[in-house]
Amino acid sequence: MIPQSFISDLLNRVDIVDVVGRYVQLKKGGANFQGLCPFHNEKSPSFTVSPTKQFYHCFGCQAHGTAIGFLIEYSGMGFVDAVKDLAQSVGMIVPEADDKIPPAQRAQMQAQSLALSEAMTLAADFYKAQLRTAPAAIAYLKGRGLTGEIAARFALGYAPEGWDNLRAVFPQYDAPVLAEAGLVIDKVDDEGRHIKRYDRFRERVMFPIRNTKGQVIAFGGRIMEQGEPKYLNSPETPLFSKGSELYGLFEARQAIRDAGYVLVTEGYMDVVALAQMGFPQAVATLGTACTTVHVQKLLRQTDNVVFSFDGDRAGRKAARRALEACLPYAADEKTIKFLFLPSEHDPDSYIREFGAEGFEQQVQEAMPLSQFLLREAAGEHDLGEPEGRARVQFDAKPMLQAMAPSALRLQIVRGLASMTQSTPGEIEALFELSKPVAASRRAPPKSKRQEPVGLELKIIRAIVTHPSLALQLDESALEAFRQFGPEQCEHLAHLVVTAQSLGENATFAGLAQQLKEEGEEYDAIIGEIAAAPEPEIDAERLWLRATVRQLKQDVLKAELNQLFSAGLPAEELSVRYRELTARQEMLSREEQSEFAAR
């Protein structure tokens, strides 16, 4: 758990203009910066970045957030990764409760990561330069229908023949970092003694693999002639884990948003060829089965995922593994489909034979997750026999247990029940599904909180815009908020305490980020504040003081009106009356003093 104080301090140190400017071309426009929104297609800029609010806002699609939110939405990073990325950029180290690594060792790890990253960048530049003078490699790519523009977009390269070409790039060819990065191989004898070192990639078209920040972390190399292996990947390194990365995701992010879905394929060439043919929203797993980490990354980019597999036995086996990886994240608002091409085709060959329209039709007709799950469970079992139906239920059980309770799971349960001559309640009880839906009465929906209006809304706006103003609100102010109603008072009090916890240096961006982590209750208000000119804090401070003072006066007046009908003993009535009128007088003097000071 990252402390909220660290998040607030981080957002105070980073400059959102610099962060967004790495990915979006920004131009100064008045007090803000403007550019084309990276989250939707537009021809004229409606995307603004405010250096004073440290917030971005799009007037077109209403996207908004802090520097942390931008990295999450644009790069598909998780919250922790986005925080770590920003922290590293300003020299901060993220505190973690379970971090037992000594500072010296952590610094050494960071230095190693930097050295590996620099080595991969130099190697990528070398391979890219080599492609320009490699006629055979250029002819191969042209034969696959690729243009120079696409090759440049994916930074394709070529590893020439020879055992130690990287010696020209790295004068210290024997440096340990080259082996750690997977660029070279050290050959040893039977007794473990080092014999020689040579380049891992030779005579191959090179596909740089980038992380979500665009840094080269690995390579895939494809042989141009006959030979094995057809594809050679970088080994696992401190930078690269093939079970966590997706080829082409960095290049495809905007296209995924534009298309509304991501297409997951099995190979590098599928991704590049599909981009050439009008499907730039394609990515690929890296020679391994789809993992839960892959699925999480995909669903951060879009709510619609289409897996494309060859129709042969290997393709169906890969599809089954992808299905199992998806089940924990399948939800009512997510759509996951499976596309099976004829066994003689991969996406590259299919689109060349049937065209982009034919392939798009295949995508539209892809099999939904629910249908694929039931088909996998049914298999070759005989549904006309009790034993066959029992085996279908046996095969479906672990898959349904992996799913969270949802309407989608209920629909699959109903489909399975119909298939196996059971009831949905029997299936849920037999499978011991968490929070069964069919077998129990649904709880009534929670009543939605009434939207704040009038004075309550104005107070909320003032505190969210300038969180430091909350420091001037005491217990009596919170008590005065009860005039808005018990629920409204509770929400206002929570907002005040949250803002106060950020201290006197609290910012709109810091509070907005914390409120975002708690839910979407304030999202609309935050968006409106981000889109509006920022009011002067001094004017807001005076307004808030006057407003709270009036609320307190209203409370005292109401209590005085009820005092004489409360049935109190005369002495107690007199004491209480003096207390209330004294507080009234104090508030009046405070008002006069502030007025005189203006």
From TrEMBL:
Lineage, highest ranks first: Bacteria, Pseudomonadati, Pseudomonadota, Betaproteobacteria, Burkholderiales
GO molecular function (one): DNA binding
EC number: 2.7.7.101
Protein name per the record: DNA primase
Catalytically driven reaction(s): ssDNA + n NTP = ssDNA/pppN(pN)n-1 hybrid + (n-1) diphosphate
Domain notes: Contains an N-terminal zinc-binding domain, a central core domain that contains the primase activity, and a C-terminal DnaB-binding domain.
Function statement: RNA polymerase that catalyzes the synthesis of short RNA molecules used as primers for DNA polymerase during DNA replication.
InterPro entries (UniProt xref): DNA_primase_core_N_sf, DNA_primase_DnaB-bd, DNA_primase_DnaG, DNA_primase_Znf_CHC2, DnaG_bac, DNAG_N, DnaG_primase, TOPRIM_DnaG_bac
Residue stretches making up the Toprim domain: 260-342
Pfam families per UniProt: DnaB_bind, DNAG_N, Toprim_2, Zn_ribbon_DnaG
Record SUPFAM superfamilies: DNA primase core (SSF56731), Zinc beta-ribbon (SSF57783)
Gene3D superfamilies attached to this UniProt entry: 3.40.1360.10, DNA primase, catalytic core, N-terminal domain (3.90.980.10), DnaG, RNA polymerase domain, helical bundle (1.20.50.20), Zinc finger, CHC2-type domain (3.90.580.10)
Enzyme class: transferase
Source organism of the structure: Pseudoduganella lutea
TM region positions: none
Similarity-based family: Belongs to the DnaG primase family.
CDD domains per the UniProt record, alphabetical: TOPRIM_DnaG_primases
HAMAP family: DNA_primase_DnaG
Source organism superkingdom: Bacteria
GO cellular component terms listed in the entry, alphabetical order: cytoplasm; DNA-directed RNA polymerase complex; primosome complex
Cofactor(s) for this UniProt protein: Zn(2+)
Keywords assigned: DNA replication, DNA-binding, DNA-directed RNA polymerase, Magnesium, Metal-binding, Nucleotidyltransferase, Primosome, Transcription, Transferase, Zinc, Zinc-finger
